[in-house]
From TrEMBL:
Compositional bias segments (type: Basic and acidic residues): 122-132, 442-459
Name this polypeptide is given: Polymerase (RNA) III (DNA directed) polypeptide E
Annotated region described as Disordered, given as residue ranges: 122-147, 442-514
GO BP term (any one): tRNA transcription by RNA polymerase III
InterPro entries, alphabetized: RNA_pol_III_Rpc5, RPC5_C
Top-rank taxon, per record: Eukaryota
Signal peptide: none
GO CC annotations on file: RNA polymerase III complex
Length: 661
């Protein structure tokens, strides 16, 4: 082992060559070296009283073999090493002798710095003395310790993810370092005969003349051969607006990356501020398109999406919780701020069941603590943006309705659980007898007109669907989302809207609009297998993406959606879910693409047949069924089939959307 020692806190003119080295030890695998050298206590620069005080603090007044300073004064110091670099392949020690250059590669480069471990020992002594004094001054009588209940727990098998986190933890690394034993060494000065003997190993002992060749390279080429450029030194340019990235560098990125980088670092921002940070002349429409990909609208401000902060296959830096769980919890926190200005941290923690450190991080991103008010949203509501962009505001509202329905299912709550107790109640409307009579007369007139309109439409060979009962004349109509069960806004049915109820009626299958059939066809071409619940959610998002008040769809029921599915070359797969399944009825209705015109249709039908006998199967069962019916089936075909139609969990395969948590 060939190591070079550096002393960065010591001038090069003051070497340790003539200093008495008392001890040396090394851990070869870790390249950790400790040297113990004597201090000249007779030097005029040595403060004897200070040295005695340090020894007294470290060892106390009693004499013991384990004392650090046996002379009752600080007469030695310890140097501990750290690695100057982990890669020494470019470094070597060279000796020139008799016209020959002898090069020896280095094992490591260590920087020796003073160790202050004796201060830790002094602190421990102080704490022990204080504890002894407190115990001696106590006037309470000693009592027998009460019996304490002991909980015995059996450790569960460690998962691979947990094992990786444990291996990378600080405690594990400290334990591994402590496991390697110290090897004690004997120090020889540079003038010692043993040192001269070791120096001879720096020279090449056997030189084969037949291998010598004339150097035909130029000096520059020869240096390039000796020291080629390292690829690891070509560091990637940071991609975030931090203290090492200027705004000029940020603006060299594509617009989408600029917006994502800014939102990832700032977390919450008004749209006007975002436009101010971007280069002048950028189209506002393009920025709006990009911001909706990486952020959600909360009180007129944009908050970065959870999956941008916590990408897939990552985990929490605080607790090791997987990114998927973190995203669900943070989405709940953001959703709460869409309902009111302030939230209580204890209430959030009790619902999402995440460690306090993670919950605090969620809140610190978008809120600030207030006395007796919990955590308040950082920014005031941006009414200007809401008024200027009603279409985007509406689209984001529909998106939040879809997120809310998922959160309600995961965390088992309803929106009514969070209605503030001091919320203003709507004042009752007092209507006189004359007004009631007039309202009844107007209602009769409206019903006659509506009935006549239906009769005219039927005579013309068309069908008109009555979406809801006409509002009573004279009564105020509440068009807010809270007034409609499960939130139907601006005529667009949400994923949980009554528009999807079987009892809601709907048009017969022969009057389904081509636009609805086109949506269903495109959806099944992309997803192949889909549950009714997921189809509703995708349809809801499709409605939200359309311009406000320009939807070609009216009220859509379950019956209409299922008719559209059956008319688009799809069929329902009768999956036998277990009796104790907690899946909702819509989640148990599974539809699959049946006919596309290609040869792979037969593979899908056989797969659907397998799942009509069991809701979960093994890959070997699917492969055996295909082989029995179709002969030799390649691995690529089976992989494609499973990728299109199924999801895997715990070694079993399920149709998409049917895995039960």
């Amino acid at each position: 082992m060939f190591l070079i020692l550096q002393y960065p806190v010591r001038p090069s003119t003051m070497t340790y060559g003539d200093v008495n080295h008392l001890a040396a030890k090394i851990k070869p695998k870790q390249q950790r070296l400790e040297l113990e050298v004597a201090i000249n206590t007779t030097s005029p620069n040595y403060c004897r009283s200070k040295g005695e005080q340090i020894a007294l603090n470290v060892d106390g007044t009693s004499y013991d073999e384990t004392n650090t300073y046996s002379a009752k004064m600080m007469d030695k110091q310890t140097f501990s090493s750290i690695q100057a670099t982990t890669n020494t392949s470019r470094y070597a020690a060279a000796v020139f002798r008799k016209g020959e250059l002898h090069v020896t590669p280095l094992t490591g480069i260590l920087q020796m710095r003073p160790s202050f471990s004796y201060l830790d020992k002094a602190d421990n002594k102080t704490r022990e003395r204080e504890a002894a004094n407190e115990g001696g001054d106590s006037s309470q009588d000693e009592t027998e310790e009460e019996a304490k209940a002991i909980t015995v727990r059996f450790a569960r098998p460690e998962s691979e993810q947990a094992r990786q986190r444990r291996i990378q933890s600080y405690e594990f690394l400290q334990k591994k370092q402590a496991e390697e034993p110290w090897i004690h060494l004997k120090y020889h000065s540079a003038k010692d005969g043993r040192s001269d003997h070791e120096k001879q190993y720096l020279f090449c002992q056997s030189v084969d003349a037949s291998q010598n060749c004339e150097l035909v390279k130029t000096p520059k080429e020869y240096l390039d051969m000796l020291m080629p450029p390292l690829t690891e030194e070509k560091l990637a340019t940071p991609v975030g607006p931090s203290n090492v990235l200027s705004m000029a560098q940020l603006r060299t990125l594509p617009l989408g990356e600029q917006v994502k980088t800014l939102m990832k670092n700032v977390k919450v921002m008004p749209f006007a501020n975002l436009m101010g940070l971007l280069a002048s002349g950028i189209d506002q429409t393009s920025v709006l398109r990009c911001i909706q990909q990486v952020a959600l609208l909360v009180q007129g401000n944009w908050v970065v999406k959870s999956d941008v902060l916590y990408p897939k296959n990552t985990c929490s830096a605080h607790s090791g919780v997987p990114a998927e769980v973190l995203c669900r919890g943070r989405d709940f926190v953001i959703w709460r701020f869409t309902q009111e200005r302030s939230v209580m941290r204890k209430e959030i923690t009790s619902i999402i069941k995440l460690p306090p450190e993670d919950v605090k991080e969620f809140l610190e991103h978008i809120a600030a603590p207030r006395v007796n008010r919990g955590w308040e949203f950082l920014l005031p509501t941006d009414m200007d943006f809401i008024k200027k962009h009603p279409d985007i505001t509406h689209r984001q509202h529909m998106l939040w309705l879809g997120i809310q329905s998922k959160l309600e299912k995961v965390f088992n709550f309803s929106k009514e659980d969070f209605v503030p107790k001091n919320a203003p109640q709507q004042e009752p409307v007092h209507i006189s007898g004359d007004q009631r009579l007039k309202m009844a007369q107007e209602r009769v007139t409206e019903n006659k007109v509506s009935l006549q309109r239906d009769l005219d439409a039927k005579r013309a060979g068309s069908s008109v669907q009555i979406n809801q009962e006409p509002s009573r004349a004279g009564e105020p109509m509440d068009t807010s989302s809270s007034s409609v069960p499960n939130g139907s806004v601006n005529g667009y049915p949400s994923a949980t809207s009554p528009s999807f109820d079987h009892a809601n009626g709907g048009s017969p299958s022969n009057t389904l609009s081509p636009e609805l059939q086109d949506f269903v066809t495109q959806t099944f071409r992309k997803h192949v297998v889909i549950t009714l619940s997921e189809l509703k959610r995708l349809f809801n998002l499709h409605l939200a993406s359309m311009p406000t008040r320009q939807s070609i769809f009216c009220s859509i029921s379950d019956h209409m959606l299922q008719d559209a599915v059956l008319l688009c070359q799809c069929k329902q797969i009768m999956v036998p879910f277990p009796a104790q399944s907690k899946a909702a009825p819509d989640e148990q209705k599974v539809f699959g693409l049946w006919e596309t015109g290609d040869s792979f249709d037969q593979h899908r039908r056989l797969l659907y047949g397998v799942f009509s006998k069991n809701y979960r199967v093994r890959r070997a069962t699917i492969q055996a069924k295909l082989t029995q019916e179709l002969g030799d089936v390649s691995k690529a075909e089976i992989d494609r089939l499973l990728h299109e139609c199924c999801s895997s969990h715990a070694g079993m395969w399920y149709l998409k959307g049917t895995i039960q948590s």
